[in-house]
Write a structure and sequence with these properties.
The protein contains 4 helices and no strands. With 130 residues, the chain is an all-alpha fold. α1 packs antiparallel against α2 and α3 crosses α4 (103-129). The mean pLDDT is 79.
Length: 130
């Protein structure tokens, strides 16, 4: 996942780098002080935009977390169970899995509810925070 996000960041920062080089060339070829100042400001603005893109990529990588966190492990377990029910048992018709009962049924339902409701709660919290 980190490699994919790094590759996407290079796609985003590549055009910024080209613009920065063009701005620097314009600065060198500027005839008067006004043109030189405008080219310098453009170069600085592009450098800031590039740094912002890098920081956003770092933040996204940090917010993903690790694959072995407990909430993700529980999600994987429920996803494997549901996948087995849907694909192996129902679609292919190769098996029959007993349904969940008792506390594990409640736990599985809570995990699925958590994953579907989590993003909605995060969006509401972000709106309230503003």
């Amino acid at each position: 996942m980190t490699a994919i996000l790094s590759w996407l960041a290079s796609l985003l920062t590549g055009p910024l780098l080209n613009k920065a080089l063009d701005a620097y060339k314009a600065k060198l070829s500027a005839g008067n002080d006004h043109d030189r100042i405008a080219a310098d400001l453009a170069t600085r603005e592009l450098a800031v935009q590039q740094r912002e893109a890098e920081l956003q990529t770092q933040y996204r990588i940090a917010s993903l977390g690790k694959w072995y966190e407990p909430d993700k492990l529980m999600g994987y377990a429920v996803a494997v169970y549901v996948g087995k029910l849907l694909i192996y048992d129902k679609v292919l018709g190769l098996g029959a899995t007993d349904p969940l009962v008792g506390w594990i049924e409640t736990t599985a339902n809570l995990i699925v509810g958590f994953y579907f409701a989590k993003r909605g709660f995060e969006n509401v919290a972000r709106i309230i925070k503003k």
